[in-house]
Amino acid sequence: MWLKPEEILLKNAFKLWVTEKDNEYFVLQRRRGYGEGGGGLTGLLVGTLDTVLDSTSKVAPYRILHHTPDSQVYWSIACGVTREEIVQHWDWLQQNIMRTLSVFDSSEDITSFVQGKIRGLIAEEGKSSLVLEEDPEKFREAHLRFEKWFELPTEEKLVTYYSCSYWRGKVPCQGWLYLSTNFLCFYSYLLGSEVKLVISWDEIWRLEKTSNVILTESIHVLAHGEDHYFSMLLHLNETFVIMEQLADYSIKRLFDKEAFQREPALSDPLQITKRGLEAHAKSEQFRTFFRLPKEENLLEVHESFLWVPFSHFNTLGKICLSENYLCFASQDGSQCHVIIPMREVVNVEKPDSGSRALTVCVRGKRALRFSEVRDFQRLANTLRSRCGISASPQHSASSEDVTLMVGQKDSSKAVSTEALMTVFHPQDVENLDPKMLKEKMKEQSWNIHFSEYGRGTSMFFTRKTRDLIVRGVPEALRGELWMLFSGAVNDMATHPGYYTELVEQSLGTSTLATDEIERDLHRSLPEHPAFQSDTGISALRRVLTAYAYRNPKIGYCQAMNILTSVLLLYAKEEEAFWLLVAVCERMLPDYFNRRIIGALVDQAVFEDLIREHLPQLVEHMTDLSFFSSVSLSWFLTLFISVLPIESAVNVVDCFFYDGIKAILQLGLAVLDYNMEALISCHDDAEAVTILNKFFDSVTNKDSPLPPTVQQASVGNNDKASHFNVDISELIREAYEKYGNIRSEEVESSRKRNKLHVIQTLEDTTKQNVIRVVSQEVKFSASQLDELYNLFKRQHFLSCYWTMKSPALLHHDPSLAYLEQYQLGFQQFSVLFSLLEPWAFCTSKSTLSLWIFRLIDENQDGLVNFKEFCCALDTLYSGSFTNKLKFLFKLHLPPGDLFTCCLCISAFDLPEDGVIRKSPERGRSLCVKLTGRGKVDLQAYLKQWQNEILKKEETIKDLPRINQTQFIQFSKTLYNIFHGNPEEESLYRAVAHVTSLLLRMEEVGRRLQEPSSPTKPESSTEEASTTPETFDTSGSHNSQDAAPDLSELEWSFSFEQVLASLLNEPALVSFFERPVDVHAKLGQAKVAQLKTP
């Protein structure tokens, strides 16, 4: 590797370096302790220095120095890991530089020319390099060490590296931590003791910052049941954040594809950089805080003061600019923040250049004044250009009462344009009962808030806003405020007419999702009058069907119907759709997928908060899994399924303002309220009864809804069992006691627990697969565990370094356990070559394809773990007869189905290695959902019945093998024996068996001669011919009266082949020789990463 020329002192370096080549201008040196001799104690000391100190010259074992005869100064210009690499650089210098140097007169000119040439070479390399770091030179040095020490495939992308200590028991090892796209690596070398650690991110169960008596602060990594601790990091927080992001990136990319495909910025693993990860994390935090669409990215951040009219002072904060939004948040993040869509900006003014201020004018005759902006001129220009592009002509509101219902004017007449609550429960203006008066007072409070803080998309969010939310939102304003707080108003404004198009496109479609939607329509708030009529049911059907059409990966999930029903009560139909989009895709990520991963993660977060805030409950109930099971419906339906509707909507108010934090706080408040009763209960059933009674007793004393709309409470019928609890008081108590829970802490806990949840689900899958497979193979449970890990890793290896890996398409968590991980031919071929019991020779690729075709029972071009293990078990532990039967079947259809194609090219296969079959032959017809396709349950049941009734195959069931197949069978045996110490005797045995079988056939043929209408040619010559000669003979015999006679004569049964081979002790002992399974698995584990 060429290095940026750097001056070095050679005076004290003679003890560390040995000169191997030199000339007038260059010196090639080798590091002591490397190469021949080892270096003894000096080599140990040098190796230790090489690891601990950060310098290329102290790591690379070879280097080239430049010097001039009349100077004592040396310049390092190249280094190399191997002798071949450094000699290649040396030869290049001899051929391209040495002749040119003779034309210079002075040493300074020579040195200047050499340095310029080397810098030019480095710059040329940098053009094609993937290294996009702040300090490319140091990063190139680190990348050199990374490749040298870990020998990972060259495609692996190093992201960053840190000096740290790794703890082995109670002993720290000082070394280097390398974080790459797919692996966490550590290397240390201290006085001859080498420590090397490679962990793939998808194997990590837990990643967290910890501290104890010995380690003041460290990073804890749990993988494969082993704990790893890294400490003495100069930038521990930065290191942890990068590790967390890489682990999360791997989990999303390999296990949670629904979430990953929504993040195109990280789609290419070869382009991941530290800078890119940091930018992505900031953008994600920015979008979460301001509830912006997923397409927005944080582009610029400016410190400034914002004039707050309601407080009459300037508040310090940060301006955050994205493609379509200008946002401001005060310094503590809680005083106030404001979101200004570019489409709402009408002008950007600079009142006074001396004050570094600018004024942003928005629709509704409002203006926001930012002052003390360092680069206010550029910011003003940026805003003007973006507003010119982003201005939306359809937004023409000019009054302060900014309407939020953008896009409805284009709606189809089939789409409801009124919230169901206004249709089925219109407010009586003249009604002056106490509840209605209180409702009017709430509306007045909000109107005062709007007059002070603004209304619509550019409203200020402050502590007062949260206080009003906690007290309860008026019925008339609920839909408007939900749209605003969730950010759905921006989605709707930027996609006019989108919902109407979806409704029209999805109308009449029939999928599994639509079937489930129809089944659940009448289960959605059945007690509410709105959903006892066709109006409400039709609106609910349209919203759910449109969303399933928009997002087929989620489609429809139970609990979505309950949530959407409540949304339709207070929001217009199109607004309800965009609210559902905001909930499913932003506010509750991964909640409504096949494995409800998001809900499980938040339950784990809830358990952590219980341990922290309710220690008394933890002491009594050590197993908190009960709370996970009982609280699942709380999270999935935002308490709608357990609380009366008039109380549940208050919870939804808080959720749209504070996100999942509001649900966690309320959950803690519920447990705290029932603390004494839960501590005194004796079993889980009693605890469930206590909580159910509590929820039944929750009321909303301020609700203006009539009794026909409100849900009847079971608990209210039993007044002695429970006092009534007002929902407003319960929410207020939740905010007072647990309002200090920060959203940042919740997000961090989510990331930490997501690793554990995903790995627990994956482990459950593995255990179920192993339990099924163990009944059909002789492998032990530990061996099956290792085999499964190898199989799964092989599936992922093709995903590590490619942007769109076909293997990811084969991974579907919704399928049966055995079908979740499958290998195409290319993946199978690599893994089988690592585990094969015999050293197949030149036809390895051909034989691998035959095996693949044989074990792929349903001919869909994919092999699952069970099929793979059964084949491997036969070759490892099967009897002589079973092994021979397996090899025999390889040369029968479907094993040799593509032999002719393979004669042209063994690898003329699609990119993913899947040999496409007609759809009726694949398992995909039976169990897979393709986009909006339906499951053929009858075909699936028929396949299942056939598998149950499948009988054991006997040797008499096998068809006879013809001459072409028999010749290929003999060649396969020769290939298997290649390289074996007893190769010669095995070859002779096969030749003897072949000769014996052919003589048997000749005798049988002669016995049939009297009854044959024609007399065939001599068989001795034909027996030794090639398959091409056989084809000619076959075409000649086809003109005879008995066209099938040739085929009958030149075929062998399996019994004949078996009987002949049993007569050869050398062959029997070869096939019955036991295989060291443990050694094979260990070798494959080491070699797997080196053969992607």
UniProtKB/TrEMBL annotation:
<dbReference type="InterPro" id="IPR011993">
    <property type="entry name" value="PH-like_dom_sf"/>
</dbReference>
<dbReference type="InterPro" id="IPR011992">
    <property type="entry name" value="EF-hand-dom_pair"/>
</dbReference>
<keyword id="KW-0677">Repeat</keyword>
<dbReference type="InterPro" id="IPR004182">
    <property type="entry name" value="GRAM"/>
</dbReference>
<comment type="function">
    <text>Involved in vesicular recycling, probably as a RAB11B GTPase-activating protein.</text>
</comment>
<keyword id="KW-0343">GTPase activation</keyword>
<dbReference type="GO" id="GO:0005096">
    <property type="term" value="F:GTPase activator activity"/>
</dbReference>
<dbReference type="GO" id="GO:0003094">
    <property type="term" value="P:glomerular filtration"/>
</dbReference>
<keyword id="KW-0106">Calcium</keyword>
<feature type="compositionally biased region" description="Low complexity">
    <location>
        <begin position="1009"/>
        <end position="1029"/>
    </location>
</feature>
<keyword id="KW-0479">Metal-binding</keyword>
<dbReference type="InterPro" id="IPR002048">
    <property type="entry name" value="EF_hand_dom"/>
</dbReference>
<comment type="subunit">
    <text>Interacts (via domain Rab-GAP TBC) with RAB11B (in GTP-bound form).</text>
</comment>
<dbReference type="InterPro" id="IPR000195">
    <property type="entry name" value="Rab-GAP-TBC_dom"/>
</dbReference>
<feature type="region of interest" description="Disordered">
    <location>
        <begin position="1004"/>
        <end position="1042"/>
    </location>
</feature>
<feature type="domain" description="EF-hand">
    <location>
        <begin position="843"/>
        <end position="878"/>
    </location>
</feature>
<feature type="domain" description="Rab-GAP TBC">
    <location>
        <begin position="472"/>
        <end position="659"/>
    </location>
</feature>
<dbReference type="GO" id="GO:0005829">
    <property type="term" value="C:cytosol"/>
</dbReference>
<dbReference type="Pfam" id="PF00566">
    <property type="entry name" value="RabGAP-TBC"/>
</dbReference>
<keyword id="KW-0963">Cytoplasm</keyword>
<dbReference type="InterPro" id="IPR018247">
    <property type="entry name" value="EF_Hand_1_Ca_BS"/>
</dbReference>
<dbReference type="Pfam" id="PF02893">
    <property type="entry name" value="GRAM"/>
</dbReference>
<dbReference type="GO" id="GO:0005509">
    <property type="term" value="F:calcium ion binding"/>
</dbReference>
<protein>
    <recommendedName>
        <fullName>TBC1 domain family member 8B</fullName>
    </recommendedName>
</protein>
<dbReference type="InterPro" id="IPR035969">
    <property type="entry name" value="Rab-GAP_TBC_sf"/>
</dbReference>
<feature type="compositionally biased region" description="Polar residues">
    <location>
        <begin position="1030"/>
        <end position="1040"/>
    </location>
</feature>
